[in-house]
């Protein structure tokens, strides 16, 4: 597979229990659905043993509601609200 950004061949590299294709020029990564699932599971396992200040990623199912839009930061000045 080639990088859609620069056309360079992507390099396969193992990441935890998954296999990820990386652009050698740093434009991005590609991973198939099974690899994404493996990474999410590894992330959840990490949080399970990391302590009280982390939380595992929620499991996404077809009936999961989309996340609410991020709250807009309050304007620092009235002029800022005009643009
Ligand atoms: Zn690239």
Report what the structure shows:
The protein has one helix at 33-50; strands at 11-15, 18-22, 29-30. It has 83 residues and is of the alpha+beta class. The chain has a domain at 1-52. A 3-stranded antiparallel beta sheet has the order 1-2-3. Bound molecules: zinc ion. Residues 3, 5-6, 8, 23, 25, 27 line the site of zinc ion (ZN).
List the helices and strands and how they pair.
Layout: E1 11-15, E2 18-22, E3 29-30, H1 33-50
Antiparallel strand pairs: 1-2, 2-3
The protein binds zinc ion.
Zinc ion (ZN) binds at residues 3, 5-6, 8, 23, 25, 27.
Can you give keywords for this protein?
alpha+beta; 83 residues; binds zinc ion; 3 strands
Which bin fits the share of residues in helices? 10-25%
Task: Assess the beta-strand content as a share of residues.
Answer: 5-15%
Poorly predicted regions are none
Write down the overall geometry.
extended
The end-to-end span amounts to: 43 Å
Give a concise summary.
By secondary structure, the chain is α+β, with helices and mostly antiparallel strands.
């Amino acid at each position: 597979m080639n990088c859609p950004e620069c056309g360079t061949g992507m390099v396969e590299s193992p990441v935890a229990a998954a296999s990820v294709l990386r652009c050698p020029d740093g434009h991005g990564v590609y991973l198939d659905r099974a690899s994404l699932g493996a990474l999410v599971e590894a992330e959840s396992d990490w949080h399970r043993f990391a302590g009280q200040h982390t939380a595992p990623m929620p499991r996404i199912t077809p009936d999961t509601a989309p996340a609410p839009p991020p709250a807009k930061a309050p304007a620092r000045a009235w002029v800022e609200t005009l643009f």
